[in-house]
Design a protein that fits this description.
The complex is a heterodimer. Chain A contains eleven helices and no strands. By secondary structure, chain A is mainly α. Chain B is an alpha/beta fold. In chain B, helix 3 packs across helix 4. Classes of the chains: A mainly alpha, B alpha/beta. The interface between A and B is medium-sized, with 26 and 28 residues.
Chain lengths: 253, 354
């Protein structure tokens, strides 16, 4: 009960902070829009190339942007944690009897809500350019996006608590992000690549999300990629949350 | 405040530690060990706190004075459940810190060096969130916030964002955040770091007022003046260990007593008569100087002054001026460690946590 109340209080705190910091809002909105405007045109002639899935470019690429957003918003959560460690905020919360899980979940949930708003904007803009909307597919996709973003945010927060300073944290996160992004098929489908790349991609959780996002956006809810993504992300997300809560209790206490 | 009168102090100590210890892993620079800082090597780790035993009574202001890296903050972080305890025991507000951290958390307030208030929120919003995290309901927390704003002179700034606050205002908000739930014990880590003398004096007044309302205050400081002016009792710490303990005046008396400087009228002591006379007095520990200027070390200056006047007057030795200078806590530190506290490192962020 205390955990629920505390989570709600901290969720509110983080959401208000975010809304009062227009720079973050601007960055959050501009990133996906830039991808749509500056990258999508590059793909125009690709459908038809061997290995490239058929379908409109936007239909293929927009779900990838949503997956990318979820990944980026989650993995950047730790930057805020580093700042809060250095400003004494985390310590101030930790010395209260507030639930440790709530201290972790408050900012994560707030981040999910923000991300959902950005996603809605991306979909709306995409719709204007001809992206076909399948509501049920998008709803299921939203759940997958939350799972991945929550997992990445918990991972990023815990990493921040362990590394404690901005340079080591940035090094770790960037070092992990790049291979995950390259092996996810976000920008170009992995199906274009050689076999070894396809095999390697299968150990990447983001790959499953990207694959599921494409079929869900097309409304194919029964595609195996959907349950596969859930099968990978649900346990992984739970595992990372448990680990992050532990780190929160110990590393700093 | 609902209880305006001072809570009757009990004899029961509010903080008791026995042989409290903490060591940090040796490599991966703990972020401190400036000159003269750090502890001694114990096994694989760097010993930050090596066997601290203290008792803090109900309703007193108790201080940890020492140079940066002495282990003050580490001790405080163990007592506030922020850092695990390696050895020994600590009991705060009647509960064992290691076994019942949650019980301890509800009964203590903590103001870190950094403060940690939300810049983008107003003072009032900060206080309300803090009160709610301590489990207060909306009505009582709102009421409490009103009281605290008045108590710490924050009324005018209540609805301004914290980033517009001055250093002194921010510090008062930090203190308000620490006492929003009426803790039995308030921990202050280097409370006046970064404050100008006026704001510092103002903060001290507020801390004394808290004490007078029954809150036990535990603070760390590396400012001699702060320890001297504010603490009812203190320990001096160096290299993770307690060197000495007592009230500020007890500690200063254990050094060399006080010194009296006498300026005699020119020629009044031509034959060293004054020196011989004073040296033979039982209350004079030591006498230096010659001719017209004499320095006497005495047990208790305020008792010695009238006697000195009487003796010199009786011997018809003219005195031009006379001054009494008390030893400082720095003299105590110097006496105990052979180093001056003023030189022992002045970086405000000590042992900033492993």
């Amino acid at each position: 009960m205390k955990t629920v109340t505390d989570t709600r209080l901290l969720f509110h705190r983080y959401t208000v902070q975010m809304l009062r910091n227009p720079v973050w809002l601007f960055v959050g909105f501009s990133t996906p829009i830039l991808y749509l405007v500056l990258f999508t045109p590059l793909l125009h002639d690709l459908p038809g190339v061997r290995g490239f899935p058929t379908g409109s470019v936007l239909q293929l690429f927009l779900p990838g942007i949503l997956a990318l957003l979820a990944f980026a918003s989650g993995s950047s959560a730790g930057f805020g944690t580093i700042f809060e460690l250095q400003s004494g905020l985390i310590e101030r919360f930790r010395v209260t009897p507030a639930s440790r899980l709530a201290i972790l979940l408050g900012p994560i949930l707030s981040g999910l809500v923000m991300m959902t708003v950005f996603d809605a904007v991306v979909v709306a803009v995409g719709y204007g350019f001809g992206f076909g909307i399948h509501w049920l597919g998008l709803a299921v996709l939203a759940v997958l996006l939350w799972l991945l973003a929550a997992m990445m945010a918990a991972f990023s927060t815990a990493t921040a608590l362990v590394t404690k300073d901005i340079s080591s944290f940035a090094a770790v996160i960037n070092g992990i992000n790049l291979p995950i992004l390259l092996l996810a098929g976000v920008l170009l489908p992995i199906s274009l690549g050689p076999l070894w790349l396809k095999i390697l991609a299968h150990v990447n959780p983001l790959y499953y999300l990207v694959a599921a996002s494409r079929v869900l956006a097309a409304g194919h809810l029964s595609d195996p990629a959907v349950w596969q993504a859930f099968a990978v992300l649900v346990p992984l997300c739970a595992l990372v949350l448990v680990w992050a809560t532990r780190v929160f209790r110990q590393a700093v206490s | 405040m609902t209880s305006p009168a001072r809570r009757p102090a009990t004899d029961r100590p509010v903080i008791v530690t026995r042989d409290l210890r903490k060591a940090f892993p040796a490599p991966r620079g703990v972020g401190h060990s400036g000159p003269g800082a750090g502890g001694t090597h114990a096994g694989q780790g760097v010993q930050a706190v090596g066997g601290v035993s203290i008792e803090v009574g109900d309703g007193e202001i108790f201080g940890f004075l020492g140079p940066n890296g002495a282990g003050k903050t580490t001790t405080l972080r163990m007592l506030t459940t922020l850092l695990s305890i390696d050895g020994g025991t600590a009991e705060v507000a009647g509960f064992d810190v290691a076994r019942h951290p949650q019980e301890v958390r509800t009964r203590i307030g903590y103001v870190s060096q950094l403060g940690g208030a939300d810049d983008l929120a107003t003072g009032r919003e900060n206080l309300i969130l803090q009160g709610r995290l301590y489990g207060g309901d909306v009505a009582s927390v709102t009421e409490r916030t009103h009281q605290l704003m008045a108590l710490l002179d924050l009324g005018e700034f209540a609805d301004r964002r914290v980033k517009t606050y001055s250093g002194g205002q921010r510090r008062r908000l930090d203190v308000a955040l620490g006492i929003v739930h009426r803790p039995e014990v308030l921990f202050l880590d280097e409370p006046s770091t970064g404050l100008d003398p006026q704001n510092r004096a103002n903060l001290w007044d507020h801390v004394r007022e808290l004490r007078d309302r029954g809150t036990t205050v535990f603070l760390t400081t590396h400012y001699l003046e702060e320890a001297d002016a504010l603490c009812d009792r203190l320990v001096i710490m160096d290299h993770g260990e307690i060197i000495t303990e007592g009230t500020p005046s007890e500690l200063k008396r254990q050094v060399a007593g006080e010194s009296v400087v006498l300026h005699l009228r020119p020629g009044a002591d031509g034959d060293g008569r004054a020196s011989r006379l004073l040296e033979s007095q039982p209350f004079v520990r030591e006498l230096t100087g010659s001719d017209d200027q004499l320095r006497l070390y005495v047990e208790d200056g305020s008792e010695a002054l009238p006697q000195i006047i009487r003796i010199l007057d009786g011997a018809d030795i003219g005195v031009r001026s006379m001054s009494l200078s008390e030893p400082t806590l720095d003299d105590v530190f110097l006496h105990q460690t052979g180093r001056s506290l003023r030189d022992a490192g002045t970086r405000p962020t000590e042992e900033s946590v492993a």
